[in-house]
Design brief:
The protein has 233 residues and is of the alpha/beta class. The chain has one domain: Rossmann fold. The chain has 8 helices and 9 strands. The strands form 2 sheets. A 7-stranded mixed sheet has the order 3-2-1-4-5-9-8, with helices on both faces. A two-stranded antiparallel ribbon has the order 6-7.
């Protein structure tokens, strides 16, 4: 992720989440509304994949990529515990966050630990074979990219998803923003940008993704987000 008009946004994210991993994790865990939204959205994704909790075990072997997994609680751990999920690639740019995830996986047990591949990397820097992923999840992560990087990232995700069955679950800020650096978000510097609701939906369509669910939700004490689940055409 090269330096752009806002400086090196990769460095901003890496430094911020490395230095404040615990405080960010504690903040997310202290917000039950936000946790409920995440869990509900993952449940909707599992429904779309045909593997909702309590469903038959006809579908199995799913391969999932989580972009910006953070400490992994609750989403990565939930995916790793799901019987239909064979593997989870848990990606984050922060080594501190991933160290917390590793600790949680060890506590969860060998079955969950063996399912998860931890990938410490800038999400813009790696690649997968086309049509090999069943789902990609990006919760509060793509918003840390500049607008043009979000377009590029969504196009890459679309290539990675299996045609006809692969799904993306993601949230974007609903209001358009060329980009903003907050010098004191939970004590750290953070960068966000957004194409806004209309342009984001257009971006998904242009990438070959059909939106099957969308909602704009205002989280108490936080911003308003566009949540989408989109299927690879």
């Amino acid at each position: 992720m090269a330096s752009g008009k806002f400086g090196n946004v990769k460095h901003i994210s890496t430094e911020g989440y490395n230095d404040h991993a615990q405080s960010y994790h504690d903040w997310t865990q202290s917000r039950p509304e936000g946790l409920e939204i995440r869990q509900n959205m993952v449940s909707k994704l599992l429904d779309e994949l045909g593997v909702s909790e309590g469903a038959s075990d006809k579908i199995h072997g799913l391969r999932v990529l989580e972009l910006g997994c953070g400490a992994g609680d609750p989403i990565t751990l939930r995916l790793a515990a799901h019987p239909a999920v064979a593997s989870v690639v848990a990606n984050d740019i922060s080594s501190s966050m991933l160290a917390m995830l590793q600790t949680s996986l060890t506590t969860a047990g060998k079955t969950s630990e063996d399912k998860v591949e931890i990938l410490e990397e800038d999400m813009m820097a790696f690649d997968f074979e086309p049509g090999t992923l069943d789902a990609v999840i990006g919760l509060y992560s793509l918003i840390h990219l500049e607008q043009d990087q979000q377009v590029e990232m969504v196009a890459k995700i679309s290539r990675w998803l299996k045609p006809g069955t692969g799904h993306l679950l993601c949230c974007f800020a609903s209001a358009e923003s060329l980009g903003k650096v907050n010098d004191n978000f939970l004590g750290m510097r953070a960068f966000w940008s957004s194409l806004g609701t209309t342009k984001t939906l257009e971006m998904l369509k242009a990438a070959g993704l059909e939106v099957v669910y969308q909602d704009v939700i205002h989280e108490h004490g936080d911003a308003e987000f566009l949540w989408v689940i989109a299927r690879k055409a």
